[in-house]
Amino acid sequence: MFDDIGALELLTLVVLAVLVFGPEKLPKVIQDVTRTIRKIREFSDSAKEDIRSELGPQFKDFEFEDLNPKTYLRKQLAEGNDDLGLKEIRESFDLRKEMAEVTDAVNGRESAPAAPAAAAAGAATPDLLKKPAAPAKDERPPFDADAT
């Protein structure tokens, strides 16, 4: 809880507490605060145990920290579980295929077959750095409204 409090900040809190409560009342205030914190922790632990017992034996390993979405995702990604379908999402973003389709559309060619069919047919992905073949003499180049 107080991981990032430095020595100067701690000293400032102590001096402020002495000034606010006085040296006579400070030990009593500290005891009251620690007693209250202990009661809150006990109440929290008993509430967690009650919830676990009500959920049943299949939730005996349930951690309340997993209710935080960031913690849940971090745990799922660290364990390598793919319950969220992240692998399918990553595979659906095939930028080479998308770029090839855009290039074909701009050049007026038909799109290449889908990636699984092309891989099955043994076709290689098109090289986007190569210059396209020159159009026939009677064929007009594709019109590009953005280029004019």
From TrEMBL:
The keyword Transmembrane helix applies. Residues 112-124 have a biased composition (Low complexity). Pfam families: TatA_B_E. GO terms for cellular component: TAT protein transport complex. The chain crosses the membrane at residues 6-22. Residues 106-148 are annotated as: Disordered. One of its GO terms (molecular function) is protein transmembrane transporter activity. GO terms for biological process: protein transport by the Tat complex. The keyword Transmembrane helix applies. It is found in: Cell membrane; Membrane. The Tat system comprises two distinct complexes: a TatABC complex, containing multiple copies of TatA, TatB and TatC subunits, and a separate TatA complex, containing only TatA subunits. Substrates initially bind to the TatABC complex, which probably triggers association of the separate TatA complex to form the active translocon. Part of the twin-arginine translocation (Tat) system that transports large folded proteins containing a characteristic twin-arginine motif in their signal peptide across membranes. Together with TatC, TatB is part of a receptor directly interacting with Tat signal peptides. TatB may form an oligomeric binding site that transiently accommodates folded Tat precursor proteins before their translocation. This is Sec-independent protein translocase protein TatB. It comes from Streptomyces nitrosporeus. The lineage of its organism: Bacteria, Bacillati, Actinomycetota, Actinomycetes, Kitasatosporales.
